[in-house]
Amino acid sequence: MTVMITRPEVRNAVDPETASALRVAFEKFEKSESLAVAVLTGAGGTFCAGFDLKALAAGSPSRLSDDVDGPMGPTRNGPMGPTRMTLSKPVIAAIEGYAVAGGLELALWCDLRVAATNATFGVLNRRFGVPLIDMGTIRLPRMIGQGRALEMILTGRPVAAMEALQIGLVERLVEPGAALEEAQQLARQIAELPQGALRADRRSVLTQWSLGLAEAAAAESRGGLDVLASGEAQDGARRFAEGAGRHGAGISTGES
């Protein structure tokens, strides 16, 4: 599924109505049995310039909403919409132009980031006294390290795409205009893989942070044993024994 923010007249800044629409879109994605991967992008050559400061200045509500149930327990919705949702399936950001302030936080919420070489990242809200409240202060240091994260957060300077790649803020760079196509192709590749083990491993990565080593290892084992009990691994082993996937060849499960 592709979700596109379409407010190009304000560089896809998110107002409360847009935040609600984003949350609803990803709730539908989570509940869908036919969708395996989502892509989040923005229209008009910009990913997202953050929360709409004009809406904030006019007094539009941007507070955290009530608790909502998610696949890994209750969460709260952030001002940008889905940033406090923990999905059971991956989301890929396709980034052109600016991914700044709350837009950076939306990109950090995604599992992977494909960015155009002309993309710009940064905590540009620093100039206006607007805090990060969509988990940017949590996800950014976990992704790029505390020192680099604090340098971005304290200075509010723009970060170019090549630097973002070098520090681990994005995973792939493409030519301008190609981010969405590349992200969708990557999504299809992921969707063709056996989903049980993929989602179990992803869940272990995402939930380990609050756990000790022994607890994290136990959680990983539980997820892996569930996959083994489902028969997915045995089916994959059988296909390998029959000659599929040798020497790095791709394997399609026949599912989408």
Summarize the structure.
Helix content is 42%, strand content 15%.
Main features:
single chain, 3-stranded mixed beta sheet, 10 helices
Could you please describe the fold and organization of this structure?
The chain is of the alpha/beta class and 256 residues long. The chain contains ten helices and ten strands. The chain has a five-stranded parallel beta sheet with strand order 1-2-5-7-10, with helices on both faces. It has a three-stranded mixed beta sheet with strand order 6-8-9. A hairpin with a 2-residue loop joins strand 3 (67-70) and strand 4 (73-76). Helix 3 packs across helix 4 (136-144), helix 4 (136-144) packs across helix 5 and helix 8 (195-207) runs antiparallel to helix 9. The longest helix is centred in the C-terminal third of the chain and has 18 residues, at 213-230. Mean pLDDT is 89; it is low at 70-74.
What is the fold's blueprint, element by element?
Elements: E1 2-5, H1 16-31, E2 38-42, H2 53-57, E3 67-70, E4 73-76, E5 91-95, E6 98-100, H3 102-109, E7 112-116, E8 120-122, H4 136-144, H5 146-155, E9 159-160, H6 161-166, E10 172-174, H7 179-191, H8 195-207, H9 213-230, H10 232-241
